[in-house]
Design brief:
Blueprint: H1 2-14, E1 36-47, E2 53-60, E3 63-70, E4 75-86, E5 91-102, E6 107-118, E7 124-135, E8 141-142, E9 145-153, E10 158-169, E11 172-178, E12 181-187, E13 191-201, H2 203-226
Antiparallel strand pairs: 1-4, 1-13, 2-3, 2-12, 4-5, 5-6, 6-7, 7-9, 8-10, 9-10, 10-13, 11-12
């Protein structure tokens, strides 16, 4: 954990804004066309692995039962915003903030480091890795956890990608007595490796989709707050 944050601090130190004469490009291009450029990705991923079913057990006296609840889904909408600097004409290095929505379920976010290998003026390969640091189901999942991936960027603004996440559930185990009979409820710690294959927009199209999604989120949040407290 400490090593990762040291690397992240180094990344942001490396990516400090260049002089005004060399401001970051919005389009992704290798050096010398761009000294640095923004990452503005918005994408969809379909989970190739099975969703996680959390199993819980109940024991009441001499009888027992269990039930399962599907707590992750098949569809992931994700956003990555950050900055990458071209180290030379062949390689770039950067950092992004990752935001993902497991559609219909939880939101989670974190940070990633990214390395790019330029194949041509337009094509490139990215490898990334980082940590999910928070989620809306913090009472169900443990944080931090891993997020990483790879992408084949075949133009300035679109790519095929592979995203990998690991999620661990929090275990619980409690017992109480009712009229002299014990009741126990427990769930063991479970883990999931999620593998998503998908497509991303970047550059100007990615920026447009990110802006639209943030606007929609702000509208929904504003409507929710304006509706007043709930009983």
């Amino acid at each position: 954990m400490k090593v990762f944050f040291l690397l992240l601090a180094f990344a942001f130190g490396t990516l400090l804004p260049p002089p005004l004469s060399a401001q970051p490009c919005l389009s992704n291009k290798p050096a010398p066309a761009c000294r640095s450029f923004f990452i503005t990705e918005f994408g969809y991923g379909y989970k190739a692995t099975s969703p996680l079913h959390r199993r819980a057990y109940e024991v009441f006296g001499n009888s027992s039962s269990f039930y399962e609840d599907e707590i992750t889904g098949r569809h992931l909408l994700s956003s990555e915003l950050g900055l990458m600097r071209n180290l030379n004409a062949d390689y770039g290095f950067g950092a992004t903030h990752f935001f993902g929505w497991d559609v219909g379920r939880q939101l989670h976010g974190g940070v990633k480091l990214r390395m790019r290998k330029w194949l041509s003026d337009k094509e490139s390969i990215d490898l990334s890795g980082g940590l999910l640091l928070w989620g809306t189901n913090a009472g169900v999942f443990e944080y931090p956890s891993f997020v990483g991936g790879a992408s084949l960027n075949f133009s300035d603004w679109e790519s095929f990608n592979l995203t990998v996440t690991t999620l661990n559930t929090q275990s619980y185990d409690y017992t109480y007595y009712y009229e002299g009979v014990s009741y126990r409820s427990f769930s063991p710690r479970q883990n999931e490796i999620g593998v998503y294959v998908g497509y991303k927009l970047s550059s100007k199209p990615g920026l447009v989709f990110n802006a639209a999604s943030l606007t929609a989120f702000a509208v929904v949040l504003g409507f929710f707050l304006a509706s007043g407290p709930f009983e």
